[in-house]
Specification:
2 domains, 5 strands, 5-stranded mixed β-sheet, single chain, about 240 residues
Length: about 240
């Protein structure tokens, strides 16, 4: 391999690598632990001998690494690729979770809509109040979101807000709340996917159709977000 100690480009077809295209491996031992961590004091599997044919020390042979993907001598590039891969994986998981959450809520709503009015209001209210009282806050928030309940954080929190909504609800809404609350509680104590699937099967809900619609809606939103023009920063007046 032929190398140059000068930086910059070479003529097209030249076999000589400029200084910015390789890492020179130093022969002397590092003087400290900090110095030993530097790339030029490390040998990798891509290390090879090269002769200097341009610049200073022409004719001498040195060990170099000219592989741009070497994790030892080009850690920044490797780290950058790893970061991009990690970010892509995180984005994929975020989208999958968003689809799963939206699909779950749609399925829960469809199940609730299929619940008939059978029990008396007194019975429904009695059962629901006790179910809600043992429900975790995040599950209670899902229930509130299902029924468009505005949470008043400064007035007793979500538990008081949901309890007030339940007491004002009619029989049909209470019937939905009863089934929805049972599903949410069961999901919090076991496999939520299986609980939701079993409930959907009992009420003959097409979960695949709901999932497909959610994916389509999220894809449209994602496309619209990407096509938005970038925001321009306004200069502050002097």
């Amino acid at each position: 391999m032929q190398v140059s100690t000068a930086y910059g480009g070479q003529k097209e077809g030249s076999p000589i690598l400029p200084r910015n295209k390789y890492t020179a491996i130093r022969d002397e031992k590092p003087k400290s632990k900090e110095e030993a961590k530097r790339p030029e004091f490390k040998v990798c599997k891509f290390t090879t001998e090269a002769i200097i044919t341009e610049g200073s020390d022409v004719g001498t042979i040195h060990k170099v690494c000219a592989n741009p993907s070497c994790p030892v001598h080009h850690p920044t590039q490797t780290g950058s690729r790893n970061d991009e891969k990690w970010k892509a994986e995180q984005e994929k998981q975020r989208k999958e979770q968003a689809i799963a959450n939206a699909t779950g809520l749609r399925v829960l709503a469809a199940i609730g809509s299929a619940v008939p009015v059978r029990l008396m209001k007194r019975d429904l209210l009695f059962v629901i109040e006790r179910l809600v009282s043992i429900m975790e806050e995040n599950r209670m928030e899902m229930l509130a979101r299902q029924h468009g309940i505005r949470i008043k954080r400064d007035d007793g929190g979500i538990a008081k807000t949901v309890a007030a909504f339940v007491r004002r609800a009619d029989e049909g809404t209470l019937s939905r709340l009863l089934v929805e609350s049972s599903i949410l509680l069961a999901a919090s104590r076991g496999n939520s996917t299986n609980v939701l699937r079993d409930a959907a099967s009992a009420y003959k809900i097409d979960t695949e159709a709901i999932a497909t619609k959610v994916k389509q809606e999220l894809a449209v939103k994602e496309k619209a977000r990407k096509t938005l023009p970038p925001r321009t920063k306004t200069k502050k007046a002097a």
